[in-house]
Structures are given as structure tokens and as C-alpha cells.
Amino acid sequence: MIEVAFPGGMNLALTLDCGQAFRWKRNNDGGWSGIAYNTRITAYDLGYGRVRFEGIDDNSFSDIFADYFDYHRDYAGVLNNISQDAVLAPAVEKHGAVRILNQEPWECLATFIFSACNNIPRIKLITERFCDLFGEECDGSHFFPVPETVAALTEADMAPVRSGFRAKYIINAARNITGGGIDLDSLSDMPLEQAEKKLMNLNGVGKKVADCVLLFSLHHPEAFPVDRHIARFTELNYPDGLPEYFKGIEGIAQQYMFIAQRESRV
DNA sequence: CGCCAGGCTTCTA
DNA sequence: TAGAAGCATGGC
């Protein structure tokens, strides 16, 4: 158990539940429980950017979870840049630092393949069934299924997951990973467009899903996923293209656009 | 019943 | 190269 003070702040609830990750659950006591990097974690927002983590110690934080929670990014600076935008400044003021998670790439890829033409509650349900059925059991919960397991499945095996037409894409992606068709980790050091193309070679992965994977698991904060909500938002507010002050952090700004758009819908 | 959900592939002209 | 249809499923 450790307590961490995040420089620049940490809105734990929105960070874990704004549609970038699908396995974190709020507990009755207000804490959040989830699994990442084969670790069961419960996190409590203590306010003022402080978080208590159960399941994480100093070593695993510095080795893994500092990166997972984007601890080292200068969010004060990032939010200062985004606040130059009159449309997003209120959302930044209201919510503080909604951090980008650096998730496990395969899990991120699979869940965003599930996300295609779907809604967030159902993405979570499908992901949970997928883990319960095919993930290694751990204290009554389940890890995310490893690619080797998924590569060996058939579409019929996937039927209970109820993921519809997305099942074959998941299996195919797993086979590409285990067969060496794509190396997700290598995309971190690749220029954005090149990494997008690699991901889009996978059946069922278009530009939107590719950008989500690059933003939420592969250290590309400049990736800018455009779904139907963001498309509407940018056409309305930035008809001539994104402002210069979003340069390099387009994906982080996108989170606030998504939140602002969601809150503007009654 | 019809419409929609943080899309993508395939077919068509 | 652009636009529409089809794709599985489930909530409303």
C-alpha cells in the first residue's frame, strides 16, 4: 500500500471511467478496483491529487504503475495549454487532471476492437465476459486473456461473449500478435502515421481504434481519435483545424472534448 | 417496432 | 475516392 501525490493533480474517477479503460469498477466505499499488469489494485482518491493504492508498493509503482498512471507527465503545463481554449477551459477548471493511462497494449487493442459501433456499458460487459471466460483466474477475479489463449479460439468459442461481428477481429488480432505479424510495443517509438498504418493492417482496426490504442497504451499523446462525438465537436468548434496550442497533446485535449460533449448532451 | 451505440469492411459507381 | 449497405447485439 502506498500513497502518491500526483504533480498537476489527479481526477481518479474520470481517469478510470471516461471511456479509455473498461475494467475499473467503483466500490461501495468509493474506491476503485481493477487489474493491470497482473496486479489487483484498489485506489482511493484522497483529494488534492493524492491517491492511496492498495496492491501497489514503492517498487511496483516506480517500475510499472508510475507509467501506467502517467505520473511523470507535466499535467500542470498540459492543462495550462488546454485552458487557452475558451471552449475547453471550463471542463479543465471543473475536472482537473484527467490523466491518460498507459495500458497494456494488447488489452487496449482488444477492448477498442470491442468498442466499434458499441456503447460504453456494453463494452464493459463484453470485456468482463471475455475475461471471465478466457482469462486466468486470480482470487475470484480474472486477468485479461493472453493473446496465446485467444489465438487458439474459434468464433464459436467466442459466442458466449456476445461480441457479435467483433469476435473474428479479436481472434485475428491475437493470431497476428502471437504469430509475429505485429509487434505492439514497437509502435511506441514509431512516428504516429507509421504506427497507425501498422495497426490498421489488422482486420477490424480503422483509424479511430488505432489512435485509441496509440493514445491509451503506447505513449502517443499526439494521437487524436475521432469518433462521431469528436467529429461533431471539432466541426462545430474548430472548422479550420485544431488550434496550435493542442500541438503534441491532441489526445489529452480530446479527452476534455469528449467529456464536454458528453456533458452538453442532456 | 425503429433508432442508436467512442466503426469497420465491402461493395458500388 | 466517396458513399452506402451490412455487420451482431442490446437498451430504450
Task: Give a written overview of the molecule.
The protein is globular, with a radius of gyration of 18 Å. The protein is an alpha+beta fold and 266 residues long. Strand 3 (32-36) and strand 4 form a beta hairpin. A five-stranded antiparallel sheet has the order 1-5-4-3-2. It has helices spanning 12-16, 58-68, 75-82, 89-95, 105-114, 120-134, 147-151, 155-158, 167-178, 192-200, 207-217, 228-237, 250-264, and strands at 2-5, 25-26, 32-36, 39-47, 50-54, 137-138, 141-142. Helix 5 (105-114) runs antiparallel to helix 9 (167-178), helix 5 (105-114) runs antiparallel to helix 11 and helix 10 packs across helix 11 (207-217). The structure holds a DNA duplex (13 and 12 nucleotides).
Shape summary: globular
* H-E string: EHEEEEHHHHHEEHHHHHHH
**What share of residues is helical?**
40-55%
Helix/strand/pairing category: alpha+beta
Which range does the strand content fall in? 5-15%
The spatial strand order of the largest sheet comes to 1-5-4-3-2
Overall mean pLDDT score? Answer: 97
Got a strand count? 7
